[in-house]
Specification:
Catalyzes the phosphorylation of the 3'-hydroxyl group of dephosphocoenzyme A to form coenzyme A. This is Dephospho-CoA kinase. The chain is an alpha/beta fold and 192 residues long. It folds into two domains: 1-26 and 102-192, P-loop containing nucleotide triphosphate hydrolases (Rossmann fold); 32-100, 3-Layer(aba) Sandwich (Rossmann fold). It has helices spanning 13-24, 31-37, 44-52, 64-71, 75-99, 112-115, 131-142, 146-154, 159-165, 176-188; strands spanning 2-6, 27-30, 57-58, 61-62, 105-108, 123-128, 168-171. Strands 2-5-1-6-7 form a five-stranded parallel β-sheet, sandwiched between helices. A two-stranded antiparallel ribbon has the order 3-4. Helix 7 crosses helix 8. The longest helix has 25 residues, at 75-99.
Amino acid sequence: MVIGLMGGVGSGKSTVLDYLEENYGAYIIQSDHVAKEIMTPGFKVFDKLSKAFPEVIENGKISSEKLASIVFNNKDKLDTLNSITHPGTIEEILNRIEQSNNSIIVVESALLLGSGLEYHCDELWYVYCEHNERVNRLVENRGYSVEKSEEIISNQPSDEEYNHFADEFIDNTFSVEKTREQIDMILSNKEC
């Protein structure tokens, strides 16, 4: 079973991922990690980025600082970067799904909805957390200001949008134990 895990920043997706991995032996694929990995030597994305942005190569590696400074406030350069990294990330995620023998595979990605990845998932799970709790978590755990937290949240899909596409709903506003109970309940009704 391939689960697509959705939820806004601060909703606690990592709590769900950790529990699925530790207790159910799930194979976890996080698109952020995949995106970083494919920007290293040996991957096609690295080769394409080296051609598109030769000035960011230092000691045979991509300097993320240089790359960030080039694409910051330059929409054309950012579009070029995204046109290379987004399809490359999706392709690598699909390869990993295909190669996995795990009975549960979880794909966590901000690109999930609208990227085509959602069509490769058997189910979409939405991890919800009450708005003020999300802000508190971002302030406490990541050191963001309330203003920055609110801005990030407002630039993500709404709860309604996530919920519209979700097959399963997990409320992660409260304790870790309650979240785990919900996961156990969902999986007790599945064949995986």
